[in-house]
Known about the structure:
- By secondary structure, this protein is of the alpha/beta class.
- Helix content is 31%, strand content 13%.
- A 6-stranded parallel β-sheet has the order 1-2-3-4-5-6, with helices on both faces.
- Helix 4 links the parallel strand 4 (103-109) and strand 5.
Amino acid sequence: xxxxxxxxxxxxxxxxxxxxxxxxxxxxxxxxxxxxxxxxxxxxxxxxxxxxxxxxxxxxxxxxxxxxxxxxxxxxxxxxxxxxxxxxxxxxxxxxxxxxxxxxxxxxxxxxxxxxxxxxxxxxxxxxxxxxxxxxxxxxxxxxxxxxxxxxxxxxxxxxxxxxxxxxxxxxxxxxxxxxxxxxxxxxxxxxxxxxxxxxxxxxxxxxxxxxxxxxxxxx
Length: 220
């Protein structure tokens, strides 16, 4: 059985030649960077065969460390990269996005600040059709914005969507989880989302790795 971690971060230290967006340092998961070598050690210790690297938002829209890790260890790493959809020059990158070795798709965040408005102010509108046409899978983190994501799924039935963190904010837990998941499960009737309403021994291999590998096009 192949075990795949569907989303991990690696990042480098902030430096003058590698500046972070304002406030980025306060968002990092720990004060010291986490690189590919340490991640490999942790994966080996935990029995994880593969990991999909998602560059963290606190570093800005850069994919260099993730792509380097995938290039050096293609059997262990692949990437869902960041794309600055608010920048006009990004539109020319979509058609060749998956030509980058190790790149599986795009990860977008709509969870704080100006990012949250992009689903409603037209900023992201161009991207969905472009990604659907190019066959690019898209991870989205959009807590509290499920109606907007549902509208995207309805308009673009050929777009592969992954809801990061089940579209839930980090402060939802315990008894609040059940009600919060109700609108998430309602998305299952769209052809580009999926709900598992059963589990079996055979399904274990799909849940632990094969499902994400096939959905994102990373052959085992």
